[in-house]
Design goal:
Elements lengths: L2 E7 L6 H11 L4 E6 L6 H12 L2 E5 L6 H14 L4 E4 L11 H8 L4 E5 L12 H18 L11 E4 H4 L13 H12 L4 E5 L14 H19 L26
Parallel strand pairs: 1-2, 1-4, 2-3, 5-7
Antiparallel strand pairs: 4-6, 5-6
């Protein structure tokens, strides 16, 4: 399966060199796309230096920071235009272990979306305290109940998509730009008839740089989840991102359902 991993960056100069090398070691056949949002610390320059050394790495330079979701949409459109069969996403700060990439790709053979999950058996967030762990768990529980999705880690940003399911979604109409993007994409994959599976990961909090989370990003996610959930309860189509008339998925995937 021809696969591309999309890695958004903003001020990740402390980790990007080592991360790209570890991704290449973990999955030698995987192509890499770095989407940099004008990092003033020279992240894009460092990524291009590694690209010149290792090959099979591309860097998109964007002039300003427009959000995680917009960076992923840019990367996914780039990958779909080049006919990749699988598109992965991961953080640039070593929160996600590159060694888990082959497992995500293996599971993608029989699914349309594979989520690296902190909250299924075997998953963990060893560096988080009880308070932060509870907030994250509660947010995922709320999202799962409101959207009717039996997924324990809707906010995970370590995941792999089949290109066929992404083509069922109009990326231009995906609304979230912050971490709500992860929730919205899982919801849209479900609406499009995709098969979703979670696989355990150990999430390590960033050791270098600053977190991109903010109250505005959290509020965006809560607002979108609530709106989508309420619309679905009154029978309204929840998002224009799923076209009303679509081609069916291939026959072998036509009975898709979530776990």
């Amino acid at each position: 399966m021809r696969a591309l991993v999309v890695i958004p960056t903003y001020n990740e100069s402390g980790s990007i060199d080592a991360l790209l090398r570890r991704v290449r070691n973990a999955a030698p056949s995987l192509d890499i796309l770095v989407v940099d949002d004008g990092s003033p610390d020279g992240t894009a320059n460092l990524a291009e230096a590694v690209a010149n050394d290792l090959g099979k790495i591309e860097v998109i330079r964007r002039p300003v920071k427009t959000g995680l979701g917009d960076a992923y949409r840019t990367g996914f459109r780039w990958g779909l235009a080049r006919e990749y069969e699988a598109l992965l996403e991961m953080d640039a700060d070593f929160s996600h272990d590159p060694a888990s990439i082959p497992r995500l790709l293996d599971l993608l053979e029989d699914h349309d979306l594979v989520i690296g999950s902190r909250y299924v058996r075997g998953g963990n967030v060893p560096s988080w305290g009880a308070h932060r762990r509870f907030i994250s768990w509660a947010a995922n529980q709320y999202s799962s109940i409101m959207l009717g999705l039996p997924i324990r880690d809707l906010t995970s940003g370590f995941r792999a998509f089949r290109s066929t399911i992404l083509k069922r979604i109009d990326l231009n109409h995906v609304e979230a730009n912050g971490y709500g993007f992860q929730i919205e994409m899982a919801y849209l994959v479900s609406l499009a008839g995709g098969r979703i599976v979670e696989t355990p990961i150990h999430f390590v909090d960033r050791q270098v740089g600053k977190s991109k989370m903010s109250p505005a990003i959290a509020l965006e996610a809560v607002f979108l989840v609530t709106r989508f959930g309420l619309r679905s309860r009154v029978g309204k189509h929840p998002s224009p991102a799923i076209p009303r008339a679509t081609e069916p998925l291939p026959q072998e995937r036509s009975n898709a359902s979530n776990p």
